[in-house]
Design goal:
Blueprint: H1 9-12, E1 15-18, E2 29-33, H2 46-55, E3 65-69, H3 78-88, E4 94-97, H4 100-112, E5 124-128, H5 137-147, E6 153-158, E7 161-167
Parallel strand pairs: 1-5, 2-3, 3-4, 5-6
Antiparallel strand pairs: 6-7
Helix pairs in contact: 2-3, 4-5
Length: 171
């Protein structure tokens, strides 16, 4: 058996790893659920709603992202979301329509939109799959969509164990 230097085959493979955790925004996300303000679980009554919003402790949203949504099947007038925003925006870093996953996706989208994806032209890309931070599937979808015009290959996982997702067809 011949002994020699240890060769890092992954480093020589030309694979480029993109770790979406690097684009994770760790700002806390607070949920404001309009369900809690519905009269008999069905409708928002404007006068009561305004009074409840005035009495609500908005300081708890200081420095957070606020996700405003209604988890029940009630039909909510647009002005209700607008009114919540007027209160929350004073304290929150930003107010969004939707749930926690919607906010996470939006934060990833904003960061991914700033990348010059042409830098990956002709490259073999691995989107790192394991991590400690919650990267939503929507962020992987968006990243793949942005890579397709450029990458030769797109894979998911780790260099030692990946799932092939896309391979450029040879013309």
């Amino acid at each position: 058996m011949q002994e020699g230097p240890i060769v890092n085959k992954v480093a020589k493979s030309g694979l480029v790893t993109i770790d979406l955790e690097e684009y994770y925004d760790d700002t806390p996300i607070e949920i404001f659920d309009l369900k809690d303000y519905l009269y008999q679980g069905l409708i928002i009554r404007e006068k009561e709603f305004r009074k409840n919003l005035e009495e609500h402790d908005w300081t708890r949203y200081a420095g957070t992202y606020v996700a405003v949504h209604c988890s029940s099947d009630a039909i909510i007038a647009s002005w209700a979301y607008m009114l919540v925003t007027t209160y929350a925006q004073v304290y929150a870093k930003e107010v969004f329509f939707g749930n926690r996953d919607d906010v996470r996706y939006e934060m990833f989208r904003r960061k991914l939109d700033k990348i010059d994806w042409s830098q990956y032209d002709g490259k073999r890309i691995i989107l790192k799959g394991c991590g400690d931070k919650p990267v939503p599937p929507s962020a992987y979808l968006l990243t793949t969509k942005k890579l397709l015009p450029y990458a030769e290959r797109v894979m998911y996982g780790e260099a030692c164990s990946f799932v092939p997702v896309y391979r450029e067809s040879k013309k």
